[in-house]
Amino acid sequence: MRLTDQLKQIVLDFEAEVLRAVANGGKQPYIERAMTRADDKLRAMQAGADADLLEAIFSAAIEIETKSKMAMEIAA
Length: 76
Description:
- Helix content is 86%, strand content 0%.
- By secondary structure, it is mainly α.
């Protein structure tokens, strides 16, 4: 699996986890845990990453943060 595919999978896994949490009445702590797990996976990919990969990792992190905020607003 290519690294960019791994990034996409991290974001997709995060989205699925958050959607399940919100659909089941999950509140902010569930969303924060999903975000933390995704962020941990992204941080693990940073070691030894070149500039292009770092840019992609940061883009994925921003996407996850944005979607987390949206989910928290819905769950509130």
